[in-house]
Design a protein that fits this description.
DNA-binding; globular; homodimer
DNA sequence: TATTTATTTGTACGTTCGTATAAAATTTTG
DNA sequence: CAAAATTTTATACGAACGTACAAATAAATA
C-alpha cells in the first residue's frame, strides 16, 4: 500500500452495487466507505447545501435510503466525512509533535519544525494522496470560514491545534500569545488555500498548469517561519 | 457620513415596504439596495445554496418576485452583491497604489506599504464599517475556497491583485515570481480568515471576547511583510 | 429448518426550492 | 386627461429537497 494513502483508499469497484440482505462478514463497512467517499466528493464540489443525499446515493450506486440508514440525518453524514480523515490527520500531527519533542530533549522545538510538522501531513496527503484525500482537502478549505464548518473543525482539530500553539508560544518566548494565535490562523488559512486548488494562483501568475503543491509547501514553510520569528521583536 | 462606510450605508427604514406603482424619482434604487443588503446578510450567514430567494425577500420586507424582477436569476443577484462593494474596495486599493507609486518616485514601493495598502481597506471596512461591510467580509471568506466564489472573485478582484503582485515582484527583485504569488495568496487567505469572525481564534487562545481586528491587522502586516522579505533569500 | 438480524429496495409524504404569469397600483409621458 | 411605463402584489407550477415506512432479501442464529 502506498505510504501517502495513510491506510485509507477509495472503496474498490464503485460500479457494483451490493445485493440486499445481511452481509457475510460482521458489518457492512464496504458500503459505509463507499457512501463516505461519494459524500466527500460531492460536499467538496458543491458544499453542504449544494450536495443532496440523492446525489450522494447515486454517486455511490445505492438507493436513497441506504445513506440515511447508515449515517442518519445529513449533518451526521457530514460529520462522519470530516471525522474519518481528521482522525488520521490528527494522528500524524501528534506523532510528529512527539518525535520533535523527543529530538529537542527538553528545549523548545524550532519554529520551522513546528510549521513543517503541522502543515506537511495535510499538503502531502492532498498532493500525493488518492482522489479521496484531494476531495477532503478541498472540502476543508470550503469549511474554513463558515459557521457549520468551523464548529465541526473545532470538534476534530482544536485539541491538536492548541498543542502546536503552546509549543509555538514556548519557542517564541517574549511574543504576544495572541499574535502567535493570529500567526497560526494565518498559517492554517494559507495551507487550506493552497490545497483548495481554486485555480486563482494560476490566473494571477499566468501559469497554464498548477504549481506542484510541494513547491508551494516549501515556500509556505519559509514564509510563515519568517513571519513567526518577527513576532518576538517588539 | 462616517468615513469608514465608504459612501455605502444600509438602506434606511428596513421595516417599511414600498407601495406598488412607479416610483417618484427615476429608478427604484431604494428597493434594490434593500434587497442587496438582505442577500448580503443571508449569503454570508448561510452560503449561496443555504440562503433562499424567499428568505432574502422576507428579510427585505418584500414579496418573492421583487427580487427576481430587479436582479433576475439567483446567480445574478449573487454577483450583484459581490460587485457592489468590490467596486468600492478596488477603488480604495487603486488609490492607495497610485499614492504609493507617487511617493516612491520611480523606486520600488516598500513591501510593508504594499501589504498594508492591500489589506487595510478590507479589514478597516470589516471592523469599523456598518453591518453591511461585516456581512460582506464574512461572505468573501466563505467564497475564497469554493468554485463559484473563486469565479466571481476572479471577475471582480484579479486585475487589482495582479497590479499589487507586479509591485511586490518588483520590490522583491531576485525572488521567484511564483513564490511571490504564493505569498500574496497566503496574505489574502489570512486577511479573509481574520474577517470571517468564526470564533476559532478565541477558542484557540482562551479569550472570551474577539480580539480587535485592528490588532490582528497590525500583526498580519508585520507577519506577512517578514514572510515576503525572506523570499529574496535563495 | 425456523427465526431473528442486518441491509437494500421501492415508494411516498410534506416542504421548500427557483422561476413564471397575471393583475393591481402608481407615476410618467403624450 | 388618457396612455404608456414601472413596480408591487398575489398566486401557481414543476422539480428537488430531507426524511420515513413497509416490504423484500440474504446471512446469522437457534
Amino acid at each position: 500500500m502506498p505510504r501517502h494513502t495513510h491506510g485509507l483508499t477509495l472503496a474498490t469497484d464503485p460500479a457494483r452495487p451490493r445485493k440486499p440482505g445481511r452481509p457475510k462478514g460482521g458489518r457492512s463497512d464496504h458500503t459505509r466507505e463507499r457512501i463516505l467517499d461519494a459524500a466527500e466528493k460531492l460536499f467538496a464540489d458543491r458544499g453542504y447545501d449544494g450536495a443532496s443525499i440523492r446525489d450522494v446515493a447515486a454517486e455511490a450506486g445505492l438507493q436513497i435510503h441506504s445513506v440515511g440508514y447508515h449515517f442518519g440525518p445529513k449533518e451526521q453524514l457530514f460529520d462522519a466525512v470530516v471525522a474519518r480523515r481528521a482522525d488520521i490527520m490528527t494522528g500524524l500531527r501528534r506523532e510528529a509533535l512527539d518525535a520533535a519533542r523527543e529530538r529537542a530533549e527538553g528545549a523548545a522545538i524550532p519554529i520551522k519544525q513546528l510549521v513543517r510538522d503541522y502543515v506537511s501531513p495535510f499538503i502531502q496527503s492532498a498532493s500525493h494522496g488518492d482522489a479521496g484525500w484531494r476531495n477532503y482537502a478541498a472540502l476543508m478549505g470550503r469549511l474554513a470560514n463558515c459557521p457549520l464548518g468551523t464548529e465541526i473543525i473545532a470538534r476534530h482539530y482544536d485539541d491538536t491545534a492548541r498543542a502546536y500553539i503552546a509549543e509555538l508560544q514556548r519557542a517564541l518566548a517574549g511574543a504576544d500569545p495572541e499574535d502567535v494565535v493570529d500567526g497560526f490562523s494565518a498559517m492554517v488559512s494559507a495551507m487550506l488555500g493552497i490545497c483548495a486548488a481554486t485555480g486563482r494562483p494560476e490566473r494571477l501568475s499566468g501559469r497554464t498548469t498548477r504549481r506542484p503543491p510541494e513547491d508551494s509547501f516549501e515556500t509556505l514553510v519559509r514564509f510563515h517561519t519568517a513571519g513567526f520569528l518577527t513576532l518576538t521583536i517588539a
